[in-house]
Amino acid sequence: MKIRDLITEGRDAPLYHGMSTRKAMDVFKNDKLKASWKHILPNGKQIIGTSFSRNKLLRYGYVTIEVEQDKLTHTHKIIPLDGDYINYNKKSWDNPLNIRSREMHGWSSMRGRDMGPEHTLAEEFVIGDIFPLNKYIIKIIIDEPEFGTEVMDPDSKEYDKLSRLLWKYSDKFKIEVQTSI
To answer: What is the predicted pLDDT for the residue at 102?
Structure first.
């Protein structure tokens, strides 16, 4: 095994970011995912970026983007975080900065119950804006959200507007779209 393989091990898995319809329209219109979350690390340092998950089962809105984590590591700092610890000061696993420790546990105060390892947040926090976003997207997924309160009628004008914008974006940048709605 080469030293580079040891350094980059664990960064080859895709990351997922779910978003609301309104946010998705802004993201695809501007080809930019704006850093909008502030986290304070255990050492007191404040960081601003975007939360992603290694878990494709977590859907926080109708639109989820799947991105290449490896590509992101070349242009952005990615910090593995325990969302429960950072947001609620409650550890859901042994070491909030250790990927292997996080993947072994699935309890989350964000969802208020033990959901098992397959539903762990497995948060990866990407610092800063991501632009141009199309360079990192593998796939755009349209599906019913698992979490959140957004409800969208497929016959609505909002859905139609999002759909046209999304297809225009995916055609322009040759990005796969997966939909189940």
So the answer is: 46
Cα 153 to Cα 144: distance, rounded to the nearest angstrom: 11
What are the distances in angstroms from CA 44 to CA 83, 92, 120? 15, 19, 25
pLDDT value at 49 more than 60: yes
* Six-digit token string for 165: 């914008």
Q: How high is the pLDDT of residue 89?
A: 56
Tokens describing residue 115: 């959901």
DSSP 7-18: HHTT--S-EEEE
Reduced to 3 states (helix: H, G, I; strand: E, B; else coil), residue 125 is strand
| 84 within 8 A of 165, measured Cβ to Cβ | no
Least confident of 19-23, 68-72, 137-141: 19-23
- CA–CA separation, 96 vs 82, rounded Å? 5
Backbone angles phi, psi at 74, to 5 degrees: -80, -20
Report the distance separating Cα 80 and Cα 83, nearest Å.
9
Burial 129-149 (b: 16+ CB within 10 A, else e): bbeebeebbbbbbbeebeeee
